[in-house]
Amino acid sequence: MMDFYKKANFYFIVIPLAAAIWAVLASTVFLNAANDKWGKMQKESEKSDPIIAKILLHDPDRIKLHKEMEEMGKFDYNTVIGSFASRHGIADSVYGLKGTGSKRDRKKGIITEGARMIIDNIDVVKFTKFLSDMLNLWPNLQCEKLTLKKQNTGPDAWEATMDFKYTFKK
Q1: pTM above the 0.70 mark?
Q2: Is the dihedral angle over the CA atoms 73, 77, 82, 84 positive or is it negative?
């Protein structure tokens, strides 16, 4: 039986036959499946276009947020937090980041990175605007744990400790 596989005539018949079967399958079965998926995607797109137009009409700031995110580039804790801190008047000397880049985890092909941020002596309004804007612009960023401690330095002085987790897109 092994001698049969060693003969060149066997391969002169099998390889063109396999190519012909592949061509028939590709032109019928695979092409029809692709056309069906394309039709479903077009229908879904036609349904979503008016909804997207309504969202953009009622909330045009979403386009600005998307542009800001593109300008910042790839997610990096130091860049993103530094940008938002300066935008909200939080001085560099008041906050600190720990664990950036060292807490990368990979589970089932999904990469996450964690960090801890501590802001000392901040008022609640400034803090909530900072956190809200940052989480709004970066939807893959989650604040997993938030702790606020009252400070003795003033009536509205707090220490905020946050544990963040960012999930990178594939």
Answers
A1: no
A2: positive
